[in-house]
Specification:
Blueprint (H helix, E strand, L loop, with lengths): L5 H4 L3 E5 L14 E10 L6 E3 L4 E3 L4 H6 L16 E5 L6 E9 L5 H5 L19
Antiparallel strand pairs: 1-5, 2-3, 2-4, 2-6
Length: about 130
């Protein structure tokens, strides 16, 4: 829509977000918890204002959730939702939907970050059979 029209600028705009499953090249190694929030940036002052509630969600597969069974109680399925409704009163180019992903490390910190390291080192000969 044309946002230059004054009437359009102040007409509330509603939209829904329904997050799907997350996929990474590494695969699913640990649980991820996410949130979505709308922010607006003031062009003059460069201040950032939160203009929506925070929508929290998780789309972890059952085996990953089962790993956390003794440390986390999932929400009751009657109140758990994977769809959020957002509204923007003033449609400007300074409104952003912010996705925050929180990962939960498993076990010892040093061993749990190993799968995320990008550096590989060859530890034996150049025959191609070495370990990385």
């Amino acid at each position: 829509p044309d946002t230059s029209n004054e009437q359009t600028k102040f007409k509330p705009f509603y939209f829904t977000v329904q997050p799907g499953p997350m996929a990474f090249q590494l695969g699913v190694l640990e649980p991820f918890f996410c949130s979505l929030t709308l922010f607006q940036i003031d062009n003059k002052t460069k201040e950032i204002f939160q203009i929506s509630e925070r929508f929290s969600f998780q789309n972890n597969p059952r085996p990953i959730l089962d790993m956390m069974a003794e440390h986390w109680n999932p929400p009751n399925s009657e109140i758990d939702t994977n769809k959020a409704l957002f509204s923007v009163t003033r449609r400007t180019k300074q409104v952003y939907l912010f996705l925050e992903i929180t990962k939960v490390l498993q076990g010892d910190t040093e061993s749990s970050v190993d799968p995320y390291n990008k550096i590989s080192v060859r530890t034996s000969g150049s025959s191609g059979n070495g370990k990385y």
